[in-house]
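comment on this one:
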Amino acid sequence: MDLIQVNASMSRKLYYSLTHYVIPALNLANPEWKPIEIVVSGQLTSRDLNEAGTAGTGVSCGIDSFCTIVDHLDCEREFEIKYFTFFNAGSHGEFGGDFARKVFLDRLELVRPFAEEANIPIIAVDSNINEILLMNHQQTHTVRDVACVLNLQKLFRNYYYASAYRFDHFMLNQHATADYDLLLLSMLSTESTTFFSSASQYTRVERTEKVSNYPPSYRYLNVCTSSSRTGQVENCSVCAKCLRTQFTLDLLGRLHLYNDVFDNAKYTKNKYKAVARALCYRKTDPYSREIMDLMKATNFKIPFASRMYCFGLMARDILKTIIKQFM
């Protein structure tokens, strides 16, 4: 069993949750990981460190991020978003280094105009955790981001972590903590700061529709993840996530509002791929299932090119599985 030695005071609530729930959950999700024992030589304390009593959330200008913001435009004062955060904790390049830091800084500048328009300050946190862990970001992203927030417990009484899925999607998945961040977030709250899995009451289609009624999103929506590979921070309009978002907006009759952030010509040329992915993965992927339901509700006719591309995806996945069995 590996050991973490804490030579400082530590939240009693956090220590309890980590040792009884979080570490066991991570080990269940990832059986190859070793259990970790936490030894605190400092003091376990139930002291409330919070002073400002404010609320915050991360700002990426993606669908989940914008939905969280829209969902808190009209709420009680203590739950009103007063600060945005932006972290370099793995999403800009999971192995860190100069490239990831440049993507982090470029993305920060990309979201800054929206924050200025919303009149909400951004707190940026740079970190070398990527270089230390050297592991897949999706496996630990919830814990990494929460660690950044816990450095700001005096400021944040409430913090909204934009969820990936609706409440009814939950599983311990070794590939992504997003599948069980509802558990992790509740267990990582302390006496000072409470974490909420925000927008969990909505499907991705419902979030997209909600965001499409928020005019600032027409100028600032950014969903692309290709920058961690290419360094380009604007929407590429052709990656799987860009195409999925554009297709959803298209089915909702709202895509024309986003001409400033997407390349319509690229989308039109590659639209069949978005349809094919929804068709191919409708039984295993919640997002694809939602899009298929929306396609049926809007009487969308699946083109022949999409059916052929779907067959290609299925053949590729079968081949990958066969190769993996013999490796």
